[in-house]
Amino acid sequence: MTGGWLSDRRGSVAVFTALGFTVLLGAAALGIDIGAMVVARRKAQGAVDIAATLAAANPALADVLARRSLSDNGYGANATITVQAGTYAGDSKVPVDQRFVVGASPASAVRVAMQTATPTFFAPAIGLGREAAIGVKGIAASAQFASFTIGSGLASLDAGIANAILGAMLGKPISLSVMDYNALASTRIDAFRVLDALAPTLNLQAGNYTDIVAANATVGQIAAALQVASNGVVDGSGAASALAQITSALRGGGTPVHVGQVIDLGDAAALTPGAGTKGPMISAMDALSDAISLGNGQRQVSVDLGPAIPGLLRTQITLGIGEQKQSSGYVQPGSANSTVMTAQTRLLIESTIALPLGLGSVTLPVYLQIAMSRASLRSMSCPWSSQGRRQVVLDAQPGVADLAIADIPKALIDPATQPPDLSQPATLLRVAPALIVTGRSRATLASPYMQSVTFSDDDITRHTVRTVSSSGLAQSSVASLVQSLTLSVNGLGLLAPGLVTATLGTALGVAAPSIDAVLDNTLRTIGIRVGTADLSVDGTRCDQAVLVQ
Question: pTM of the entire structure?
């Protein structure tokens, strides 16, 4: 009887059908719970992202702002919330889990983490918990940045001297006109549009600008990118034409330089800005000059101007330039990137000047060494409610400048070498063996403290240039040296020493303005002036904050 029952297969389909429906119903029930969990997690993630974004706009109040935001969105006592301020580095070379640094200063990013739970509906029926744990986090970074430049201004630049200096650095002849240089100096272009034009020439398929500034490009490639960007600017045709001449001379070649040293993203690199983002406005001339200067790997150039300078028989220039960072990119107050500086520079100008009374000619060596001028972003105000109330404050200090008439070995013009001894008198005149005249003079310009300069919204919009100056310079640089020149006359010449010194003093005084012009134009070509620092704010980013992770 039992065996017959066990072998009876009638009704088995109904049994398996019932079991199948039970499994399906259970799966459907779990599916509803899982779907509810996904929705709850998405809602929690959105709330955390909003909280992190609000907190990152003001990291000093991050904890209060984040908790208030989460409470407004329904996450209060039922959630465990952790708010941490720090910094964020959006560098692709840094592992994702190491990009946010808790407690680093100055705080520019906030991480908000939340642990909460959502109820389940059917899970308890199969022995699972009545709640499902949810853990979410979001990281946002402040996006309030300013970009600024320290330089010289390029008004009234002498084209002949600038062509000679830049041509010597490039190793190619340059024939730009005064109008060309004025156009380059007055044209401001979006730095990111330059990077847009540069990327294809470097065969980069970059989704953000961080990868482009990390690459190397030749001076010719950078000049070509500047040309493309200038064509897209109103009244930029003059600069584009001048850059076309440089591009034609280099044909895309030249020394490779690090793109980030010409166009710096600053702190905005942490946001990995994507294509099309508006960048800081930069001077076409500054960018070109920086690229050419960086491309001059020798650090030292010599230029013979011959008799080109009125009032001088011959002029020779030896120039040594150190490394520099003149434009900040987008930076935040107090960050490691918020200080820019001009190059440490050494310059020797040797001028040959005709003398009356049959004394022949005198050679006057004028030496200048300038320490780095500095500028830092002190503070910025970027009210979201009123963009017209923008304000940027910079602290600036012109570099200490030593001017001298002295015996200077040319090997010491390189800023990487030890400074020369400025107390050694220079031989100005030698009528061997009867007459030898030596002389020395020295002047120092220094600004002992930082000076604060405030830029209003109107200043930023108009790209107003403000200048801070050192004390100690009277009249012109060379004229001041000549007036304090100590002369020594040696030999058995037929002329009285007093007559010789008076004659030399008069001749040198007449030539001083011409030598001053050479000195000033040489320094302006590389973005420097004696005893002053010209400051401008290139732009601001007044976004509230952006989600970075």
Answer: 0.72
